[in-house]
Every structure is written in structure tokens, then in C-alpha cells.
Amino acid sequence: MSKIYISALAAMMLMQKSYAQKQTTNLQQLWLAYFNQTRFSNKWGMWVDLQLRTKEEFVTDFSLAIARVGLTYYLNNDAKLTVGYAFINHFPADNHPGTSQPEHRLWQQFQWHTKYPRIRLAQYARLEERYRRKIKDEDELAEGYNFNYRFRYNFLAAAAIGKKPFAPGTFSFVVNDEVHVNFGKEIVYNYFDQNRFFAGFAYQTNSTDNLQFGYLNVFQQLAAGNQYKSIDAVRIIYFHNLDLRRK
What is the pLDDT along the chain (247 residues), one digit of tens a residue? Predict the structure, then answer.
């Protein structure tokens, strides 16, 4: 009996130690974004998005800024390929409180849409090549970059509210989930990067554009493997679509 008791006690101590080693930071943020897709011809178009995120307590400091551009090739009206570049500024954080960390990111994406009378679906699969500047100490950047790949899958569903689905001036209910997976030689512990779940509403400003707003939860595993972030955020995005083809 004593051996069983000692074994059980040891197992409990290991479980407690493992739990204690997992550190989760809870944050409240505001995510603002502008997304533009412009179509120049039947085959070619452009992607632009600009994003700004706060650090904590919804309005305290900044955590991240993104400027992303891409060239789009339309397979048809509902499917397209995009390749592009993004610059990301990671504002001062815990491991670099005295300096911002720049990141250069190449990306390739396949996006497709499915439309029903009262439901619209949008999905994309994206591959990213991330070059993040190395950190020398709390106040200084080092030479060179850390590199890894990241795969993202995004699924969005919008359900119309009211008698005139997706007409200007109407609302729809939106659910969106995106999973991020890291890979590459420099990834050791956090192959799972993060999951983003959003639930909210979209207001149709005209026949092509809409304003989305609602609640976003982000659960992220950091590079150390035993450190996590749980973010509760208010997300507001304006989706702007332009068609410059001659009628």
C-alpha cells in the first residue's frame, strides 16, 4: 500500500509541477483593420490590408502594426491566388521593452468564396515566410533574422438578418475561425501557433462593402512551449471591394 501511495503522490506532484510550468497571460486588446481588394481586369487585381492592435486593457499602448500588399490572379469570380509582402512592427514588449522588432513577411494564398441566398462563405489557405529581426538585449536589435514558415487556414460564414439578404443597410451574423501552424528548423516547441475565433456582426454599407465588429478570442502558444497568451479583443474591420473593370 505504501508503494501505491508513494507512486500516487509522486504522480500528483508531477501533474502540479507541469501545471505550474504552464504560464498563461490574459490580455484585453482592440484590433482595428482595413481590408481592400481591387479588381483591375478579369484576371488581375490587388490586395491591401492595414492593421493596428493595442497591447492591453483595450486602449493601453500598441502591440502590433501591419501593412500588407499583394498581387491577385483571378481563376474565376469565386477563386483567386495572391502573392505578396507584409511589413510588421512588433512594438516594445516583455523581451524587448526598449525597442520595436521589425518583421518582413512573404505570403502566398488561395482564397475561395461560396454564395447561397442567405449565407456566404469565405475561406483561404495561406503560407507565410517570416523573417523577424533578432533581439540582442532589452534595448537593442541584433544583426540577422529568425526565420520560420507558418500555415494559416481561415473560414468565415455570414448569415443574413432580415428580409433583404446582404442588401445595403442590412446586418448579418458572422462567425470566423483561423488556425495558425508553425514549421521550420527554428521551431522547437510551438508547432501550434494560435487559434483565432470571432463572433459578431457585419453591416452592409453598400452592395460590395461591409463593416464587421464583434468579439475575438486568441489563444496562442509562445516559442518557449510552456507560455501562452489568451486574448479577449474587440475587433473592428472595414472590408472595401473595388471593381475597376469597364462595364
Answer: 445 545 544 544 454 444 445 799 999 999 999 999 999 999 999 999 999 999 999 999 999 999 999 999 999 999 999 999 999 999 998 888 999 999 999 999 999 999 999 999 999 999 999 999 999 888 899 999 999 999 999 999 999 999 999 999 999 999 999 999 999 998 888 899 999 999 999 999 999 999 999 999 999 998 888 889 999 999 999 999 999 997 6
The predicted model scores a pTM of 0.89
Q: Which three cell numbers stand for residue 159?
A: 448569415
